């Protein structure tokens, strides 16, 4: 992990100054500011863990050369997502129809007994 985490040169904003007379106005104002730090997202961590070199290239702004394969993979994932959604809807419809059939069976058996 050496390299992309660097120490903040400014003290944290919650520091309590014991003797404010020892510090100048500029020193006291700098206690409230922190250095800008790049935001690390969960997807960045996942990309880094999957392939450090690809993560580094992406951070450097290097474009991928295999755009056709990436587009084909995106299309495949979208198609698979639609199939998963369709199967979930079909399963839900099947369960609703099964429940309706059971209700009708109970109603038929109750009518025959009474």
List keywords for this structure.
4 helices; 114 residues; 2 domains; mainly alpha
Structural features, described:
The chain is built from 4 helices and no strands. The chain is an all-alpha fold. It has 2 domains: 1-63, no CATH class; 66-114. Helix 2 (42-50) crosses helix 3 (52-60). The termini are far apart. The model has no long low-confidence stretch (mean pLDDT 80).
Task: Give the gist of this structure.
The protein is mainly alpha-helical and 114 residues long. It is built from 4 helices and no strands. Helix 2 (42-50) crosses helix 3.
| SSE pattern, N- to C-terminal | HHHH
Radius of gyration: 31 Å
Please tally the helical runs, counting DSSP H or I stretches of 4 or more residues: 4
Biggest sheet statistics: none
Low-confidence stretches: none
Helix percentage range: 55-70%
Coarse shape: elongated
Terminal Cα separation, in Å? 77 Å
| Strand percentage | under 5%
Mean pLDDT: 80
How many domains? The number is 2
Helix/strand/pairing class, anyone? mainly alpha
How many individual β-strands? Answer: 0
Secondary-structure blueprint:
Layout: H1 25-30, H2 42-50, H3 52-60, H4 67-113
Helix pairs in contact: 2-3
